Amino acid sequence: MDVDEQTIHSSNSTTEDSSPIKISSDVIDSKPNQYFIHEVYNSPKPVKKETIGKIQRFHVQVSRDNNANEIKKFLKEYTADKKRYFFHFTSENLFKTFSIVVNNIFNRDGPEIIYCTERREFLEDGDLIKEAIQNQHEGRTNHRGVIEHLWNLGYAAEDIIKNIFKVTKTMDMEESLKLAFIKEIGITHLRIADGLCSLIQMSGLLSRLCIQAKMQSVD
């Protein structure tokens, strides 16, 4: 099992005693082992592991139509009894389905799964996002460093794309270019929601924004 598990000692999480998955308001980005559970419409891709410093992050896809069986297979392969795991679900339906499966296949000595409901905010890095978008507006190509920096800090692709959209909406630029940017951002957001979460995906978006800016400057 390729998981650097953490043995259970104590937990500050709060939940109903009868719930198989504990719920915590802790920020998952600060945990050593992070499991991001994504629901996809097509066939799920294999579990993807990322290592960011001392953090191990796993992206897990489950399909909408057969998720109970996929969840059962994943849990048996990637969890062990009396170990602690930190999960973040992209929807409440996924959380409910996981709870049912965990309740059915594990006893009280099974793995401890903690649902971290909170994600790290971009309060300190809003200017970095603005810098990246400004680079595209001006047609520059030296843009990857900003996104790569945020990625290495541990921000998830979903967080980055949401904040790129938020910053783009408020930036001072030509309306036609802003709409073109928002369209490209929306396409990338859909891909991320479908489980295509990678630094290459984010860098590709910025390249396309740069192309859009150059095309409109020519027009």
From TrEMBL:
It comes from the Eukaryota. Residues 145-208 form the Replication factor C C-terminal domain. Residues 8-22 have a biased composition (Polar residues). Pfam families: Rep_fac_C. Residues 1-23 are annotated as: Disordered. SUPFAM superfamilies: post-AAA+ oligomerization domain-like. Coiled coil: none annotated. This is Replication factor C C-terminal domain-containing protein. It comes from Cryptolaemus montrouzieri.
